[in-house]
Design a protein that fits this description.
The protein is 31% helix and 28% strand. With 405 residues, the chain is α+β, with helices and mostly antiparallel strands. The strands form 2 sheets. Strands 1, 2, 3, 4, 5, 6, 7, 8 and 9 form a 9-stranded mixed beta sheet that branches. A 6-stranded mixed beta sheet has the order 13-12-11-14-10-15. The longest helix has 23 residues, at 249-271.
């Protein structure tokens, strides 16, 4: 039994969080520093960007959780601390400040940053804000922490679920930021997930690494992969379940709960793409292999022409076929069916790779909704996959034309 609950990253037992404005960002009304703390040592797992240019916090975090343990996460927004000569020093300094104010060992601190690349980051505002940041730690602080990691996001992103393992009630929740520079693989963003489930570090890493292949690696906003992508999971075991040390029924249940949280965050990230007005979800079915299904779904959701058509509520299904055709996937184009779906209904627009008569008025009504499903049936096998994205709007260019200045 699993249900959605409130609480985000502090829904699980033993976790507190906070977020403040410390002065990294010019806008004093926006939080720019967040902290998440577990009351006890936790198993830790993470995945990182595939970009060869990586932010200094990723290097520091990878070293700090090499033993599979962590207790805290500190993250700033407004500055990526990437391509800076003193980047490692600054990231280590952030961990040291957490250690100084909380008593948690510096090498048990995950460090993350997001924002402008190549701008020096001073420790001074972070140092000056630490007393307030630690003082505001709360079991209801998830929203403040979610606000503190945002850049061009327009809304905070939080998800949490409650489930049962071995008769024990467990919780898992997370927060995320992600709006632009989002493209597989990873899905350019920061995601912090916490759980009170007891699970060994190697199994936690296995669960996370497996999950992202069908969730965060299936998002695309604009085709750019960032330098600071990171997904981190902390599991402190306070739920009291028997520790998951091998695959089996409990591991499967944990994977399902984790996936519920990550899919929820994926949809929030995709729907909040820079300048976006619509969440796009491409569902591919009937593929001969999983690889084919994923390749097709990604190609469709990445198509700038298709994204622009969805902004204009134009049922230009030819752009779906075009994206499938150049994807490199092994498909029979003469078997492909395409439909568009939203809360206003479903309309078939293509059968067996060819256009069919449909009502443009009905299609427009369907595509004017905030959430659009692009349904692609390959009719060539049993595999399926889903990818998420958003429409491409005038505001995307406006946001990124002066992002730094």
């Amino acid at each position: 039994m699993m249900k959605l609950i409130e609480g985000g990253v502090t829904a699980a037992q033993g976790f507190s969080a906070s977020g403040i404005h410390c002065g990294i960002r010019r806008n004093t009304s926006k939080n720019d520093l967040s902290l998440i703390v577990s009351s006890t040592p936790a198993s830790a797992a993470a995945v990182y960007t595939t970009n060869l240019v990586k932010g200094a916090p990723l290097t520091v975090t990878k070293a700090h959780i090499a033993d599979g343990k962590a207790r805290a996460i500190i993250c700033n927004s407004g500055n990526a601390n990437t391509c800076n000569a003193d980047g490692i020093e600054i990231a280590e300094g952030m961990a040291a400040l957490v250690a100084e104010k909380t008593g948690i060992a510096a090498n048990d601190v995950v460090v993350a940053s997001t924002g402008v690349i190549g701008q020096p980051l001073s420790l001074d505002p972070i140092r000056n804000g630490m007393d307030e940041l630690v003082g505001k730690l709360s079991e209801s602080g998830s929203r403040d922490a979610a606000l503190g990691i945002m850049t061009t996001d327009t809304v905070p992103k939080e998800v949490a679920v409650e489930f049962t393992l071995g008769g024990k009630t467990c919780r898992i929740g997370g927060i995320a930021k992600g709006s632009g520079m989002i493209h597989p693989n990873m899905a350019t963003m920061l995601v912090f997930i916490t759980t009170d489930c007891a699970i060994a570090p190697d199994l936690l890493q296995k669960a996370l690494s497996g999950d992202i292949q069908n969730t965060f690696n299936m998002i695309s906003i604009d085709g750019d992969t960032s330098t600071n992508d990171m997904v981190v999971v902390l599991a402190n075991g306070l739920a009291g379940n028997a520790e998951i040390t091998s695959e089996g029924e409990d591991f499967t249940a944990f994977m399902q709960a984790l996936n519920t949280v990550t899919v929820g965050l994926c949809r929030m990230i995709a729907g909040d793409g820079e300048g976006a007005t619509k969440l796009l979800e491409c569902q591919v079915s009937g593929a001969k292999t999983l690889s084919v299904a994923k390749t097709v779904a990604k190609s469709v959701i990445c198509s700038s022409l298709l994204k622009a058509a969805m902004f204009g509520a134009d049922a230009n299904w030819g752009r779906v076929l075009c994206a499938i055709g150049y994807s490199g996937a092994d498909v029979d184009v003469n078997k492909i069916d395409v439909s568009f779906k939203s809360n206003k209904g479903t309309i078939d627009v293509c059968k067996n790779g060819a256009g069919i008569a449909f009502s443009e008025e009905k299609a427009k009504e369907i595509l004017l909704e905030k959430e659009i499903e692009i349904l692609v049936a390959l009719n060539d096998g049993e595999y399926s996959s889903t990818a998420w994205g958003c429409d491409l709007t005038y505001d995307y260019v406006k946001i990124n034309g002066d992002y730094r200045t």
